[in-house]
């Protein structure tokens, strides 16, 4: 005998979720308002310096010296752009920054991905030891002077690209994030590839890396921005101006403006700040243009590599 199933009483909460009718509590509404206000304030504090920088870059020197430039350019001026962009040394240092960033990011990603993939395997002999070595460097360093002697004297990397890109080629934070991501990678895919005849290197390059675009894009952004903004290593190990990155060029402008302020007065320093603003804007422009292309990978890459299931 077949009995008909009695109609079940609909789940009110489910209906509300499906129809979009969800009654929010007073506390949740207050939280949303406070959260929105806090985010707006954070965005305002974050964006104000950049907007002010853009305004000064396109303002005339007189308005900058008078302190009348805040968020909107006053006395539209692009002559400073022509002056800075006509300087051959600026473009030489700019090209050096591109070179250092590309080479340094490639080296850093090669070391980080291979190291993290090896550490993600629980059957690796000495795995705890190698993880400990990496973590140890997060808390202890050799010091500035021993580091300088090692790179400049023993390795002979003074006035060399390697003095800029090699010492910081491995970020332990990035290593641990990528290691965690590889630990969550489905083992079935690797086992199936091994059955099909792929070696460990084949699995890594043909299976693992193509399926890790999110975390790879995120780590690439971290390394590229870090190397692009770096200036201390070049300042420490380079004497030849033709080898400087653009950050050193910018640092020298700031130092010149500070010297002008002490020697001549605030007006000269405010005029020099126009050149600084233009140089800063041209310096950060590539990162601003590059970021939107990998933004969709950014959040997912960090979350995938930071949560171990």
Descriptive account of the structure:
This protein has 309 residues and is mostly helical. It has one domain (80-306): MetI-like (MetI-like fold, Orthogonal Bundle). The protein is built from 15 helices and no strands. It has helices spanning 12-19, 26-57, 61-65, 79-85, 88-119, 127-139, 144-154, 162-165, 172-183, 187-195, 200-208, 213-229, 232-237, 246-263, 266-306. Helix 2 (26-57) crosses helix 15 and helix 9 (172-183) packs antiparallel against helix 12 (213-229). The chain is globular, with a radius of gyration of 27 Å. It comes from Microbacterium barkeri. It is found in: Cell membrane. Keywords: Cell membrane, Membrane, Transmembrane, Transmembrane helix, Transport. Residues 94-293 form the ABC transmembrane type-1 domain. It is a multi-pass membrane protein.
């Amino acid at each position: 005998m077949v009995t008909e199933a009695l109609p079940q009483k609909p789940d009110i909460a489910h209906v509300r979720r499906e129809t979009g009718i969800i009654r929010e509590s007073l506390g949740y509404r207050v939280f949303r308002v406070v959260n929105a206000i806090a985010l707006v304030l954070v965005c305002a504090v974050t964006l104000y310096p950049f907007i002010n920088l853009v305004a000064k870059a396109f303002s005339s020197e007189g308005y900058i010296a008078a302190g009348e430039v805040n968020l909107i350019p006053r006395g539209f001026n692009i002559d400073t752009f022509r002056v800075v962009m006509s300087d051959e040394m600026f473009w030489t240092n700019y090209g050096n920054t591109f070179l250092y960033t590309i080479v340094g990011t490639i080296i850093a990603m090669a070391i980080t991905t291979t190291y993290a993939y090896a550490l993600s395997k629980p059957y690796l002999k000495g795995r705890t030891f190698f993880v400990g070595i990496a973590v140890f460097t997060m808390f202890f360093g050799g010091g500035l002077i021993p580091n300088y002697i090692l790179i400049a004297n023993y390795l002979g990397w003074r006035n060399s690209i390697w003095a800029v890109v090699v010492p910081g080629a491995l970020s332990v934070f990035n290593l641990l994030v990528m290691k965690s991501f590889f630990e969550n990678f489905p083992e079935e895919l690797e086992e199936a590839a091994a059955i099909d005849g792929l070696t460990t290197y084949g699995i890594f390059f043909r299976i693992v890396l193509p399926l890790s675009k999110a975390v790879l894009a995120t780590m690439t952004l971290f390394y590229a921005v870090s190397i692009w903004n770096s200036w201390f290593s070049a300042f420490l190990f380079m004497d030849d101006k033709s080898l400087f990155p653009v950050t050193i060029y910018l640092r020298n402008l700031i130092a010149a403006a500070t010297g002008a302020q002490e020697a001549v007065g605030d007006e000269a320093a405010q005029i020099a700040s126009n050149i600084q603003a233009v140089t800063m804007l041209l310096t950060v422009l590539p990162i601003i243009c590059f970021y939107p292309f990998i933004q969709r990978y950014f959040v997912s890459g960090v979350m995938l590599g930071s949560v171990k299931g």
